[in-house]
Amino acid sequence: AQKVTQAQTEISVVEKEDVTLDCVYETRDTTYYLFWYKQPPSGELVFLIRRNSFDEQNEISGRYSWNFQKSTSSFNFTITASQVVDSAVYFCALSPGGYQKVTFGTGTKLQVIP
Amino acid sequence: EADIYQTPRYLVIGTGKKITLECSQTMGHDKMYWYQQDPGMELHLIHYSYGVNSTEKGDLSSESTVSRIRTEHFPLTLESARPSHTSQYLCASSESDSHSPLHFGNGTRLTVT
To answer: Pick the residue with more confidence: A105 or A42?
Structure first.
């Protein structure tokens, strides 16, 4: 069975602060993919990043960075110098090997206060 | 510009009515999905399809039904709406390659009174 845990239900930060969203996953598969999605107030989930289980390289994209650590089964997401537009619900997701069905975490609601 | 469209965006309807939530995509994706999102934000897969004439139930039991007669169209139907069906319904699609990211529509917020 697969499981994704996002222990932080809601986070509030002041604009320009850095914030890290935690994601811990469970799977017995050796091959799997991890994802992050953003859901702004408009409602549409937007794909941010995909990482496969064989690629532990951290990734940076502008103010966003992702830290993948297989040793701790974590795939954390950091926003540097947060902005009001970052306010959204962020979902971490897992797609195990051989399956297309995705397991989503329960989401973390981020509020960036001006 | 959205490549996956859901209509209506909002729907308020009385108990017992039959409703169909529309979902269309222009990307030629074989795989399509319906998720139900409760007020606590959690996403639940209720239906999916891997191609024309292929439909499967998801992880969360749902009284809704789906059809996939055309690649681009994946409507969801409730024969008799009840207040317990009040929720946000999200449609998504993905490429055939394993582990392709999901492309989501804007969702339909359904309220059954």
So the answer is: A105
C-alpha B54: how far from its chain's center?
Answer: 15
Taking only the tens place, the pLDDT of each residue in A79-111 is 999 999 999 999 999 998 665 678 999 999 999
Q: For residues B76 and B24, is the Cβ–Cβ distance under 8 A? A: no
- Find the closest chain B residue to A40 by CA distance: B106
Nearest CA in chain B to A34: B99
Chain A residues interacting with chain B (CB cutoff of 8 angstroms): 33, 35, 37, 42-47, 50, 52, 89, 91, 95, 98, 100-102, 104, 106-107, 109
Cβ <8 Å between A107 and B42: yes
